[in-house]
C-alpha cells in the first residue's frame, strides 16, 4: 500500500479506539442472509438454459428415460461438489471462491492462473451470453415473425450489464430475491401444467422411456457435460463468504436447500415438457419453454417469454455480483492492479472490480458469436473445479490445524475430483480440436504476466500494480488520503485482515 493510504480504522473514526467502529463496518458490509444466499444460488443456476435448450441432454442420450436420469444425476453431482465447497467455505472464510482455496492449498501460481482465466475470460464471457439471452427475449415481442436486429439486441445487452452492476450489496440481494421468486413462479406454472396434462392421460412420451437410448460411455459423458453446464452456478455463494451473515451456518444451509431445489425443478420441468412435446418436437424447438407455453398456456403464452426475461436478468445479476468479488480478492492479494481491491465506503461494494468486470463484458458482447469461446474454455472451468476438490483432500493432511465446522466425507471429494477430470477429458477425447490447445496456451500465458508483475515485482512493475502513480488520481474516483475526512468514497482493504482485529 502506498504512503498516501492508511489502514481502515484510521478513517472510520477520529478516536484512538477504532476497534468497535471497524467491527461495525464489517458487520454492515456482511449483508447477505440465508434467504438471499439461497436466492443467489438458485437465481444464478436457473438462467435461460432450462427454458431454452434442455434438448442438448436429450440429443446425446437419445431417449426420455436416460435424459431424466442424467438431469437427476447431475443434480446429485452438483450437490456433492457443493458439499466440498461447504467445508472449504467454512474452513477458509474468505471471498473469492476457488481462488482463496487454491491459494491456501497450492500456492499463488495456481491461484493466479485461476484468477487470470476466470477474470479475463470465463466470468465476463459467461455474463455476456446471459445478457445477450436477456436482450433477445426482451426484444422479440417487438419484432413479431422475425429476428430482432443485432444492434437492438446488443444495446439491450449493454443496458443489462450496466443495470446489474448494482449500487449496494443490499440492493443486489433484493433484486436477486425478486427475480429468483419470479423464475420459481414460472417453473411452478410449467410443472403444474405438466401435472394436469399427465393427469389427463398425456403419457405417450413417457410410456417406453428407454426406447432408442444411447448407452455408450462417450454419449453418457457428453450428456453429463451438457447437464452440468445447466447446473453451473452451484459454487457462487463461496465467492461472497465475507459478505455472508453467519457463514458457518448459512453457507451449508443455503447449499443444502438451494441445489436440491434446483435439481427437483429441473427434473419436473423436463417431465412437463415431455407431457406436451414428443422427443422430435423438443429437439426441433428453438426455445422449448416458449413452444410449451404456446401449446399449453394459450392465450397466456406470452407469460413464458416474459418470465424468461426475468430469469436471465436475475442470472446476470447473480453472475455480476459474484464475479466482481473474485476480481476484488485477486486485487487484494496483488494478482490484479491494486485499485481493484478498493471498496465503496458509501455502498460497501467493490465498485472498481464491478466496473472492470462490466467493461470486459461489454467487449465480449461486441463479437457476433461468443458461444464458441465458452464451449472451448468450459473444460478449463471443470479443471479448476477438480483442483478445488483436490485442495480439500490436500489440506486434510497439510492443514490439520484449521477449524472445520462442516466436514465433507473424503470419498465424496475423491469422487468429485474423478468426475471433474473426466469431464475435462470427455469433450477433448470425443472431438479433439486445436482450439483446446489454444485455450491451454492462453491459460499458461498468464505466467508471462505473473513472473514480472507478481513474483519479481521490479520497480517499474510495482508502479503499474500500485493504486496510481504518486500524485495522480483519476477523475470521478475519490481515494482515501492519510488525513482525509470520512466522506471520501473508496478505501483499500488490501493490508487489512481479520487477524488484525
UniProtKB/TrEMBL annotation:
GO terms for cellular component: apical plasma membrane. Keywords: Cell membrane, Disulfide bond, Membrane, Phosphoprotein, Transmembrane, Transmembrane helix, Transport. It is found in: Apical cell membrane. GO terms for molecular function: L-amino acid transmembrane transporter activity. The chain crosses the membrane at residues 32-51, 63-88, 109-130, 181-200, 212-231, 251-276, 296-316, 348-367, 379-398, 410-429, 435-453. It holds the Pfam family AA_permease_2. Its main location: membrane. Gene3D superfamilies: Amino acid/polyamine transporter I (1.20.1740.10). Belongs to the amino acid-polyamine-organocation (APC) superfamily. This is b(0,+)-type amino acid transporter 1.
